[in-house]
């Protein structure tokens, strides 16, 4: 993607290691307006993230990066900064997506489909020997799109995992020390990662359980108490409400298993009863849901239809 001149559009957000802004540019072939998310940081760790993302070129469940190297430049203050260009997610993060729903609770069929997508992404990440280490709604991006089904175009939603700034090779615990007892966001971390600095795929599966729980409840994990890292050290887990579907509770309990091997792996969890019969793309609710959920789902699809022209222009 080297070459096109980028024009700043708007600021998208700021994270632990840098900020992300939206830029637009003209396509080389047809001159259409295209978009890219540009991540900027003064930390050289951006090179490492770019290298990891480059290993996932073509993976549909992982955000894609553009170009062949990290760009280095001097900012307005004369300080060195680095930037990488990535595909832009018009639907924003899963966090902002959840916040648009009433009570911040997603419809059950959508949660199941989203969970499948995340597991597909984790299966690829773990298959390449990496652990994401910071899976949470803020680091999951929503991509509206369109699929042709039964002779008609239907709106669809796709999830991709982003922000690999804290990712580690599986088994790498060199980062851990008594003063820095977790790699990612505390409330999404697993007991063994906090207590012993273990960086295994079970950490991501614990975090996934937290995300699934949050999609159902509309509340962040540990909402029921004042969270403390001692809760994890004492082998406690976030509260699972009793009114969740039984197969959903079983799935989340598997993610929260104290023995990491009991959490299975992403490929095995994809075959769980919780996801049986689900498909990767959301085209319509697959079970009966409450009226409010149907209305929320319909409104979301209508918003997606309005953005379809933009979506087609940014497909690469």
From TrEMBL:
Q: Which GO terms describe its molecular function?
A: ATP binding; protein serine/threonine kinase activity
> What is any one GO biological process for this UniProt entry?
signal transduction
Which Gene3D superfamilies does this chain map to?
Phosphorylase Kinase, domain 1, Transferase(Phosphotransferase) domain 1
**Which SMART domains does this entry report, sorted A to Z?**
S_TKc
Annotated ATP binding sites: 39
Q: Which Pfam families match?
A: Pkinase (PF00069)
Tell me which residues make up the Protein kinase domain.
6-275
Q: What does the UniProt keyword field contain?
A: ATP-binding, Kinase, Nucleotide-binding, Serine/threonine-protein kinase, Transferase
Q: Which family does it belong to?
A: Belongs to the protein kinase superfamily.
Q: Any idea what this protein is called? A: Protein kinase domain-containing protein
């Amino acid at each position: 993607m080297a070459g096109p001149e980028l024009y700043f559009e708007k600021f998208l957000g700021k994270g632990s290691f840098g900020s992300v802004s939206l830029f637009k540019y003209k396509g080389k072939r047809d001159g259409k307006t295209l978009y890219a998310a540009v991540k900027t940081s003064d930390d050289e760790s951006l090179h490492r993230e770019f290298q990891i993302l480059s290993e996932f070129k073509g993976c549909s469940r992982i955000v894609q990066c553009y170009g062949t190297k990290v760009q280095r430049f001097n900012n307005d203050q004369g300080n060195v900064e680095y930037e990488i260009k990535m595909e832009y997610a018009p639907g924003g993060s899963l966090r902002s997506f959840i916040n648009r729903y009433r009570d911040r609770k997603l419809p059950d069929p959508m949660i199941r489909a989203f969970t499948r997508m995340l597991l597909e992404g984790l299966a690829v990440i773990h298959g390449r020997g990496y652990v994401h280490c910071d899976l949470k709604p803020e680091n999951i991006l929503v991509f509206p799109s369109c699929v042709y089904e039964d002779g008609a175009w239907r709106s669809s939603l796709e999830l991709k995992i982003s922000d690999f700034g804290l990712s580690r090779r599986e088994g790498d615990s060199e980062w851990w020390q008594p003063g820095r007892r977790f790699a990612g966001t505390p409330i999404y971390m697993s007991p063994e990662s906090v207590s012993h600095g273990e960086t295994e795929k079970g950490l991501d599966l614990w975090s996934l359980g937290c995300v699934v729980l949050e999609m159902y409840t509309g509340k962040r994990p540990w909402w029921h108490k004042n969270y403390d890292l001692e809760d994890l050290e004492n082998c406690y887990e976030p509260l699972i409400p009793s009114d969740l579907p039984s197969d959903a509770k079983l799935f989340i309990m598997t993610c929260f298993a104290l023995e990491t091997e009991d959490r299975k792996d992403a490929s095995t969890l994809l075959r769980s009863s919780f996801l049986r019969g689900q498909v990767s793309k959301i085209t319509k609710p697959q079970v009966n849901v409450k009226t409010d959920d149907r209305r929320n789902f319909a409104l979301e699809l209508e918003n997606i239809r309005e953005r379809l022209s933009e979506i087609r222009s940014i497909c690469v």
